[in-house]
Amino acid sequence: MSGELDIILSIDALDTPDFTKVFMRKFPLVAVVYKEHPLASKQSICADDLKNLIYDIRQEKDNQPNIELEGALLQVSCNLGEAIVHEFVIQQNIRSYVSIIPLKPTQGRDIYMMYHKNRYNQLISHFESILKNRKAISK
User: Fold this and answer.
1) pTM of the predicted model, to two decimals?
2) Domain at 8-133: CATH architecture
């Protein structure tokens, strides 16, 4: 290995002229609350409805409480707060303890595949076609 990257998967692509970025899809943000939380049965909620927000992926890291994602979701599963995250980060083993509620208005973050313009190769092309076939890349 040469220590160089072939592909980068990134939330909110870097703006750099050396890389080609391919939009994959927008992943929705959701509220995560304890399964017996007063908002747990709602079809959707506004972020402002959350009164004990302990983790919000929309915030810059410096503005977050000193807590990592897994710890925040564990606290939510114990009814110690609420979180806003990408739905895909919520692991199956915690889903029986929490409710996942879409935010309104719909919010999300873009996921991109990026590669260096001078390093495009058959493997990148193959990976891109696999993603398209699995509908991981929006058309």
Assistant:
1) 0.72
2) 3-Layer(aba) Sandwich (3.40)
